[in-house]
Structure formats: structure tokens, C-alpha cells
UniProtKB/TrEMBL annotation:
Alphabetical keyword list: Immunoglobulin domain, Membrane, Signal, Transmembrane, Transmembrane helix
Transmembrane segments: 253-275
Signal sequence coordinates: 1-22
Domain (Ig-like) ranges: 152-238
SMART domains found in the cross-reference section: IG (SM00409)
Protein name per Swiss-Prot or TrEMBL: Ig-like domain-containing protein
């Protein structure tokens, strides 16, 4: 009986070990991104590993060039980073949560990569620390530079009606959710403006600013402008003419009509009275 229990226990442990240690270290990044020169860009990155949990203190994340591992874009020891990237890269993700996302600010026109992630895991073996290194050179990010500042989009562009609530949305897509674009309108107070941020797909986000106000007659034929300011100070704007439809005033029709009707009634009553009198 004891022999059978030992065999069963061994099989059970073997199954656990195979499920835990049979997996591989893997990383997933957004391979093709766009970045506005002078602004910032975020490179989404996640990774998996065989263990169920690894302490953040035992992990070290590094970003390097694909074909030149010694050219480092990010390292927790700043002295190891390439001079032209020092102070411009930051690891946004928490390695203990399998997040290796990288931020690059003040994007230069030569920051196109490819950017590859490497992780170093320190484990103890026979009470001695051993470092395991895993570079994911098959999962690297490349950046396409944008030299023209994206123009914000406005919509829906419809005719406003005097005295009735009117809304218009200004939106712009970007690649830096850690440093969002800022919107300003040519009119409207803070209470009239709301903002929404959403993730479109891997590496692309969108920020929307909605202006809601009550148009007046004086707003007709004026211009409404939305300006987007990106991290780094670059700006772009979109303008459209605001057309306000005046509320129809029917007094000039109603009053004469009522007067004519009243006159007709009085004349009719007068005729009836005259007929009765002479009869």
C-alpha cells in the first residue's frame, strides 16, 4: 500500500512540475507603432513565465537593440543606457505583474528601433544566486516617425438651433497614454467640457473632448476652434463655421390673423343684429 502511495505521489509531483516548468518564457509587444517626433510614445509589452508568481525584486527588465544587445535603450542602471536615450526612457509596467511596457519621451527622428525586451531572473540554487537571461528578439517593436502633427477631428458638424443644447466632439488619436494630449476650445467653460480616453487597439489610443453649450443668435456665423496640444508642446487645430438657426417667431402671422378673424366675427354679429332689428 505504501509503495502504491509513493508511486501516486511521484506521478502527482511530476504532473505539477511538467505544467509549471514545461512552459517557456514569452513576450508580446506591439511590433509596428507610430510616434510624433518631439512628443512621446508607449511600447505595450507583456510576458509570461513558467512560475505562478515571481517577485518584482528578483526581476530586471532591459530594452536593447535587436542586432546589438550592448546598445541599451533602458536599464535600471542609467550608466548602461545609450547617451542619446538617457533620461528619455522609463519602464511603466510592473515586472511582478508581467508588464514590461516602455515609455519614450522627446522622440527623435532616429528612435525607430527595433526595440527588443530582455528579462533577467535571479534565483537561488544551492544558496547561491544564479541569473537567468531571456531575450525576445523575435518580438521587437519598430517605430514609424510622424513629422506632421495630427489634426483633431470634429463631429458631428450640424446646424445649431438658437436656445437648444448643442454638442460637438473633438478627437485625436495618439500613442502616448501616459502623457495625454490637452484640448482647448475657442469658447466654453470647464463645466461645458468633458473628456474621454479610450484604447483603440494595441499601441493606439484616442482622446475625445466634448463641448456642450446653448447657442445664441450672436453665435451665428462665428468660428469654433478646437486645439490639441501634444506632449512636447506641438499643436494642431481644426476650425469650422458655426451656423445658428434662429427660432421662428410667428407673431407677425398670428396677430394679423386673429385681428381679421375677430373683425369678421364682429361684423357677422352686427349683420345678425341688424337683420333682427329690421324684421
Amino acid at each position: 500500500m505504501d509503495h502504491k502511495r509513493k508511486i501516486t505521489m511521484c506521478l502527482f509531483l511530476a504532473a505539477i512540475c511538467s505544467s509549471v516548468f514545461g512552459e517557456e518564457w514569452r513576450a508580446t509587444v506591439s511590433k509596428n507603432l507610430e510616434a510624433l517626433v518631439g512628443s512621446c510614445v508607449v511600447l505595450p509589452c507583456t510576458f509570461t513565465h513558467p512560475a505562478s508568481f515571481l517577485s518584482n525584486s528578483r526581476l530586471r527588465g532591459i530594452w536593447h537593440r535587436k542586432d546589438k544587445w550592448e546598445e541599451i535603450f533602458y536599464h535600471e542602471e542609467s550608466t548602461k543606457i545609450l547617451d542619446n536615450f538617457k533620461g528619455r526612457t522609463k519602464l511603466l509596467g510592473n515586472l511582478g505583474e508581467n508588464n514590461c511596457t516602455l515609455e519614450i519621451i522627446e522622440v527623435k527622428d532616429h528612435d525607430n528601433g527595433p526595440f527588443c525586451f530582455r528579462i533577467e531572473y535571479v534565483r537561488k540554487e544551492n544558496n547561491k544566486p544564479t541569473t537567468e537571461k531571456f531575450s525576445f528578439v523575435e518580438e521587437c517593436a519598430e517605430i514609424k516617425m510622424l513629422y506632421d502633427t495630427p489634426k483633431p477631428k470634429l463631429g458631428p458638424l450640424k446646424t445649431a438651433i438658437e436656445g437648444k443644447a448643442y454638442t460637438v466632439t473633438c478627437s485625436v488619436r495618439h500613442t502616448c497614454p501616459s502623457r495625454l494630449p490637452q484640448f482647448t476650445w475657442s469658447r466654453g467653460s470647464k463645466d461645458e467640457i468633458t473628456e474621454v480616453h479610450k484604447h483603440i487597439h494595441s499601441g493606439i489610443w484616442e482622446t475625445e473632448s466634448t463641448l456642450a453649450f446653448i447657442p445664441e443668435e450672436k453665435d451665428d456665423d462665428t468660428e469654433l476652434t478646437c486645439t490639441a496640444t501634444f506632449n512636447g508642446g506641438r499643436k494642431s487645430f481644426t476650425t469650422f463655421p458655426l451656423n445658428v438657426k434662429r427660432t421662428e417667431n410667428y407673431n407677425h402671422i398670428i396677430i394679423p390673423t386673429v385681428a381679421v378673424a375677430a373683425t369678421a366675427v364682429l361684423f357677422g354679429l352686427l349683420c345678425v343684429l341688424m337683420v333682427k332689428k329690421y324684421k
